[in-house]
Amino acid sequence: MVKLGLIQTTSYESNQKGIAQVSKIIKKLGQKETKIVCLPEQWLKNNIIKDFDSEFLEFKKIARDFSMTIIPGAFYEIRKNTSIIAPVIGPEGEFIGRQEKIHPFDYERYSVKPGNEAKIFKTSCKFGIIICYDMVFPNVANVLAKKGAQVLFSPSRIVRRGIVPWEMYVQVRALENRIPILAANVENRRFGGNSIIVDLTEDDKVVTTKIIKLKGASEKSKEFILEKYEKSRKSRFSDSNKFQ
């Protein structure tokens, strides 16, 4: 059994104030023995991060203190080729990897190099990261599940008018792949919140979703027995036929 969590953020006056406020929330989750926590995409005032180590120094300390894995969100990384990446801080307090956004959205296409790999991370469990618009594309979640992910996290930034279809995408990806998904969003005047934890329940071979939604600036953690999904996931994948 593993406890997994989400944080729904709001607007903050500066990166410094945002990180200070969210650090308190992460500590609270750590005290509840939450082992992996995910934040939204681009929730900081300045989402172009030049030095992840210095920007998220406090997160790294908390991760080490509570043996947590922290996905601090997804942000622009300015290099020779600009990317949007979701870095991962491991339970020893160091960055252990990063997932690049595979499908830049709309205006992002003109400045962002798309990623080309769906990666698996292993700390308290095996997990994958789906960054916002990547949730629209079935193959991203499917590849992660087939690579061995036991759960998926999704740092997102969804405008209010996009919440309904976004929630549908998250639930469908969970159902398609028989895998729980925790998707974090920003809530403010423009972005619609409703961060969502999608669990699955089965009744006589019929699987449906069981949902928890967040409201306002808040956090939530939930215990999962990730092994219980494996039989259903294996069965679902074995039913897939090749066709044209």
Topology (SSEs and partners):
Elements (H helix, E strand, L loop, with lengths): L1 E7 L6 H17 L4 E3 L13 H4 L1 H10 L2 E3 L3 E3 L5 E7 L5 E6 L20 E2 L3 E4 L8 H9 L4 E5 L7 H15 L3 E4 L11 E8 L2 E8 L4 E7 L5 H9 L6
Parallel strand pairs: 1-2, 2-3, 8-9, 9-10
Antiparallel strand pairs: 1-13, 4-5, 5-6, 7-8, 10-11, 11-12
Task: Please tell me about this protein's structure.
The chain is of the alpha/beta class and about 240 residues long. The protein contains six helices and 13 strands. It has helices at about 15-30, 50-55, 55-65, 140-145, 165-175, 230-240; strands at about 1-10, 35-40, 70, 75, 85-90, 95-100, 120, 125-130, 150-155, 180-185, 195-205, 205-215, 220-225. The strands form three sheets. The protein has a six-stranded mixed sheet with strand order 7-8-9-10-11-12, with helices on one face. Strands 3-2-1-13 form a four-stranded mixed sheet. A three-stranded antiparallel sheet has the order 4-5-6. Strand 5 and strand 6 (about 95-100) form a beta hairpin. The longest helix is centred in the first third of the chain and has 17 residues, at about 15-30. About 40% of the residues are buried. The mean pLDDT is about 95.
